[in-house]
Specification:
This protein is mainly alpha-helical. It has six helices and no strands. The longest helix has about 35 residues. It is globular and about 50 Å long.
Amino acid sequence: EYLATTLGTFAVIVLVAFEAMAVTTIMPTLTAALDGRELYSLGFAAPLASAVVGMVLAGMWSDRSGPAGPLLVSLATFGGGLFVAGVATSMEMFVMGRVLQGLGGGGATVVLYVVIGLIYPSRLQASVFAALAAAWVLPSLFGPALAAIIADAFGWRWVFLGTVALVGLITVVLAKQV
């Protein structure tokens, strides 16, 4: 009865974590391609800072009106940020994509915690949170290597663009559950 929600929740966290880790591998290549070495550090800092804002906004919105709206907007923002980063023609545009990615990823993470609290019985919540911990760890182990393979085979842009379709699919799955 909770399979779709569990898989969708796990998948969102994996994608958010993958994008956080994968960029470390491709950042030197993409900053050279976009002639943006002066904004190198912002490519990492922007999503971290904006994730905090996304967490606060989505958490407050979830408390007021439930998780459905904030989750869909957060996932759309995350996917939109991935798209902007993937099609960026300048480092400034890439950083803006990363800001959106952080807002959406941070918001989605908090909203998923709300979903777990609302949907799952208390006896299952600890197990779901344990699965989410694994969802953060796995991308840290495999994300950078996978990003290198994707970038080598298709180009650095596909580390971002390849994830957009997955975000859309997961959004459809989770929209039916919340």
